[in-house]
Amino acid sequence: MQLDCQENLKSIASLLDKLNAEQYQFPSSYLSGASIGQHIRHILEFYTCLSQAYRDGGAVNYDKRRRAMLLEKKPAEAAKIIRQMIHWLESEKMVGPVYLVASYAVSTEQTCTIPSSFQRELAYCLEHSIHHQALIKIGLFEQGLSDLIDAHFGVAPSTIKFRMQSSPESS
Fold first, then answer.
1. Percentage of the chain with pLDDT > 70?
2. Any idea where the domains of the chain sit in the sequence?
């Protein structure tokens, strides 16, 4: 799972290398005014929450993440955090239990605590990232930047495999 997360983060870093700050911050009308930078910030905050829980030996609460607004403005800052996350994923063996603390009701602050594992939470971070990459892709299309998009960016591995089986020449 750690290698899969690293590869996914590298695909985001590759995109960042191709974007300027204006493209990164462009408020997409298709995404309710959100920018590519806001989606990348959001992805990275989830990985940061999990890495903090791993270091602290505690629970992970994605709702309580610290929103690092600089990450949505400066692609170089996001790339720096990506490098840190990749290093973390390379240097640690993510095993063992963790508790997910979450609140799913808007009207109350009541939380639930769900037993999980670091591997499961890494899978969640990866799936979450792919979902947001699909949204980022929409923002890129809106800006006429489809040439910057890797064919597998924002596509789930199971979908890629299905497409390859259905039409091997198109992959």
1. 98
2. 2-170
